[in-house]
Structures are given as structure tokens and as C-alpha cells.
UniProtKB/TrEMBL annotation:
It comes from the Bacteria. InterPro entries: AhpD-like, AhpD_core, CMD-like. It comes from Gracilibacillus boraciitolerans JCM 21714. GO terms for molecular function: peroxiredoxin activity. SUPFAM superfamilies: AhpD-like (SSF69118). Residues 29-101 form the Carboxymuconolactone decarboxylase-like domain. It holds the Pfam family CMD. This is Possible carboxymuconolactone decarboxylase.
């Protein structure tokens, strides 16, 4: 991992999620393994490609206002070839269906994590750094 002083809020959120799922796996190994197997299968390319599955998951995450999933599926969509316009259209669809809460979550996604803004998002300072 990069220098802890340079970890963005978004990267930190993903790391927190991974730590939490690792801890859950220690206590509930069969359940976590089954869940992750299910999600891996669901996101495999089929009639719908991986990019579009990630965009659908992003829209649902925004509608549900699930911060970790918004970050995770935005990253997943881009890693599978989604461009900025495709992400923005996905955000618009979710906001159209979900109203103000989804619009706020959409704006959160637009804050430069994946597609850079002219001004950088401030990096968080971790305790002890």
C-alpha cells in the first residue's frame, strides 16, 4: 500500500471494507465464502458484460445510498471500460428514479475519485501520521 499519509478517503473506505470482510470471514467462513462466490458469479460476463453489470450495480448503490458500494462499483465500472459519460448517464438514471438522496449520492461519486477534477480532493490525515 502507498504511504499512509497519501491515502484518499475513497481508498481508505475500500481498505476498511476489506478489513471488515476479513474479520467476518474469521467468524463466519462458510457464509462469507458462499456470499463472495455468489457475487463473483453474478458479476462474470454473460449476456451482459462486466462493465454494464458494474454500471447497474452503481445505479443501485446510489439509489440505496450505500457509500462503500458506490465507491466499489464506480471503480469496477471504470476498470471494466466505462468512460466518464457512461458513469454520468448511470448517475442521472439513478437520480431520476431516486430523487434528492440519489442526486446527492451521485454528486459524491462525481467528486473526482475516478475522473479527476481541476482541484484535487484533500487527502485524509490518518491518526498517528
Amino acid at each position: 500500500m502507498e504511504n499512509l499519509n497519501d491515502v484518499s478517503y475513497f481508498d481508505q473506505a475500500i481498505e476498511d471494507y476489506k478489513r471488515g470482510t476479513t474479520r467476518m470471514k474469521e467468524h463466519l467462513p462458510e457464509m462469507t465464502s458462499s456470499y463472495f462466490h455468489f457475487t463473483e458469479e453474478a458479476f462474470k460476463a454473460g449476456e451482459i458484460d462486466k462493465k454494464n453489470k458494474q454500471l447497474m450495480a452503481l445505479a443501485i448503490s446510489i439509489y440505496a445510498q450505500d457509500e462503500y458500494c458506490i465507491i466499489y462499483h464506480t471503480k469496477g465500472a471504470v476498470e471494466n471500460g466505462a468512460n466518464e459519460t457512461e458513469v454520468m448517464e448511470t448517475l442521472a438514471i439513478s437520480a431520476a428514479l431516486g430523487g434528492g438522496g440519489s442526486l446527492c449520492s451521485s454528486c459524491y461519486t462525481c467528486n473526482g475519485y475516478i475522473f479527476p477534477l481541476p482541484a484535487k480532493i484533500p487527502l485524509i490525515k490518518l491518526e498517528g501520521s
